[in-house]
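note to self: dont lose this again. the chain is below, predicted strucutre after it. 237 aa total, dont forget to put it in the shared folder this time
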Amino acid sequence: MLEELELPKVPPLDTLVLDVAVEIKTTVSKSVMVPPEGQCEVTLMIQIDANRQQFASWLMRTHRSWLGGPAKPGQRDSKRSPFVDAVRLYALPVVPWTPLPPEPLRLLRPDEVAAVLPRKVSRTRGEGLASRLTALFGYLPEVVIPRKSILTVGAGLDDPLRRARETKERTWDAHQLIVLVGKWTYQKELAARLGLDISGAAWVAVTPERFTKYGESIPTLTELTELTERYGKVTDR
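---
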């Protein structure tokens, strides 16, 4: 969430907005659960309606007197939800109900989801990420995959994007697909010539047939690496 909002992770809560500490809570049910450290603080509440594929958000100072749930002695670590009436009276709408952005991971079949998104991931042992991303690109060739989706696949790992760099060679060996990343000027421009928009540091795995269709030569991984290094990173994603 912080990645999408382009906000830094700043303790003691989740982030700072205009030098004010803000807790960010998301729910797919009726109400968010506010942890003890976020109670009586400013909370950005995000509600997701997965069935209708939409979301909305509100900003509210979550005073304990406006929170339901356990408030018994010895239960100070309990999360609590704001009362409906309190939300209606005191929460400030930030985003009205709005369609969720497209998520390519929703295109996966259940068995493919199981291969790409395992239930448990070791934070420090991310050798499985390259294999899972290789599988993802094989399932979704020529589908632009936003950076946030790559981060979702690598959730729980330290520096998942660095680990994901191993994917290119594996994807070619396994599927004969060429992975392009919009973080890099040459790769972004090459994708555009192939009719694909990978701005915002998105990723895409391209078939050799698409290169032929658009009259582009098929680069080797060595050539792609050299041209990528020559033109550097995109300065304005």
